[in-house]
Amino acid sequence: IDKIELYQHYSNNKHLKGIENSDKVALNLKLKDDARRQWFGNMQLGYGLVSENRYNLKSNLMNFGKKNKYYFLTNFNNIGFDATGDIDHLIRPARTDELSSIGDDQGANTAIELNNEKPNLNQNRINFNNAEMVSINSILKLSSKTKLKTLGFFNSDENTFLRNSLQSFQILNSNFENYEDYIGKQLQITGFGKVDLTYDVSKTKTFEYSSKINYSNKKNNNDLNFNNDFINQKLINKNQLIDQKIVLTNKFKENAVILFSLRYINEKTPQSYFINKFIYQDLFNLEGNNIEQTSSNKMDYIGFETHLINRNENENLLEIQIGNQFRKDKLTSIFKIKNDENIVSIPSNYQNTVNYVSNDLYLKLKYGIKFKKVRLDAEAISHQYMNTLNDTLQQNPFFINPKLGLTWDINQKNRISTSFSLNKTNAKVLNIYNNYINTGFRSFSKGTGSLNQLNASLATLNYTYGSWGDKFFANTYIIYSKNHDYFSTNSIVTQNYSQSENIIIKNKDILLFSSNIDKYFKPILTNLKFTFGGRKSSFQNIVNNANLRTVINNSVNYGFELRSSFKDFLNFNIGSKWEYNEVKSTLINSYNENNSFIDLHFILNKKINFQLETERYYNSNLDKKNNKYYFMDLELNFVPNKNKLSFTILANNIFNTKTFKNYLVDDVSISKSEYRLLPRYILLKIEFRF
Predict the structure, then answer these.
(1) Alpha helix ranges (H) inside 52-103
(2) How far is it, in rounded angstroms, from Cα 335 to Cα 294?
């Protein structure tokens, strides 16, 4: 790398540079001449010295020519590393603030997710995996006006998850406990391809085409000892996605741009769910020995919009957006109670066939006025919905969502911004289906069976001192949200099952606060970071046919981090974070957590360096023998040939901590869970560059 350039107020669309209001920051890495127009890369091979069958194989091969660029990478490992994490942001980028982001928030839903809830712990310590990933990427300059980007990857991963837990329920006058000893196994195969074509029609016009296709097949096979009932549950979860998008940008004046966007998405999520035990005798009043459920959500989406943005000589900004988004969902579920292969019952209240069509015709007007150091933004979006549920219920609501924002640049260092908005949203398909769906081995859920819109208001306040690259930077924000209508639940909770029905209730409050300070002390070459935040929410629900009850969640967190940047043989990174959580309903439950770490980096000479990483976890509500956990990892590097060859000995989980206990609370229960961790392993790695 020759230079690192920092771009503030960055625009992904080159025609919008200097026109849109952007707070995005981008880094540009400039390579040295000897790294251009040639193939280079590195390969890392690792295998367990005294550890059974631990391995890690990573490779990168790239060529950054003037016209064409290629990047190939592979990752094979069973040391807990998530191979797809490196490219996840390329598959489903979160760019809701982009002018051409139409459809980015659309996706098909699934009824069941067996995600194996994990503790607040480094996931590499708990992820028993066997991952194989290959990714091929390129940027081809087909001509002076045409650029083609391609991305493709194939990933296969086998995961095992082990947990035992004790969940104590406290509901009115009913108290009971559930014990679970859980072994989850998952095999996932994913193939993904993406093509981006950019064509500069002229210096002021650009045509963009993007195409994505995805296929994944996830198979879960989980064994569970539930209160001495041995249960096996299997889930086959598939995903098929086709996504096409076209964007045309026309900069028809020096400070004015018009964008045309068109997008089509087709996504299917068929699921098959099997449980070899029938523990719902109290619910259905019949006998069986297994259950089967098939479900699917098929989603078709078509959206198009035109977006005009114009900045005049006084820096005032006008935005006009008109568009239409059509979405059609077909949600089906078939629930069967069986005795071996014979069907005992297909209960009518547990079957769903939902056809939900929603068409949104919208117009957005936004105008920003700048008075010296103050910018005022006023916005209004009108929506005309045409909703249909099962060809019988129809609804055509019209509403306007206004927003007002103020930004005051006090000086080069200080900025204050605030906003207030009213927002009305349309219900999703998973909120409105009319019968129950089996969503887990002891849980059922049900929608409202009606068409709904929800009202909310949002107020924000943000203060910023400094900017990127300053020795002192501080940022504080407060967010208050009031859901005037919201989806809550009317639940029946028993030892063997729980049923939840969506209901609409008034007035839910959420208050968020967060502050962070970064200070670089040049005399001691050390950076200090301090964070403080909190959250308070209040809502209502119904449990076991009682009256509406209020649930209040409170949490507070604070922490610090010290990081050195010495040029000598030692550097350190030290930090700690405390968190307090409290849930108030008919009872009050709370717990404290602390996570601290000390990382030391030593450079003994030009050829030998090592780093020592330590962590400490603490939970106040666990017994004294299990409320503290310590971890240590060591990495020793020997570099006989700089930038060419290196040897590494990696020792992970040196203390060989085998389990980790966690404590969680909610409005009906207290959970104590113990998770199996990856045992200690020592890996010898060889890395060479070419």
Answers:
(1) 88-91
(2) 7
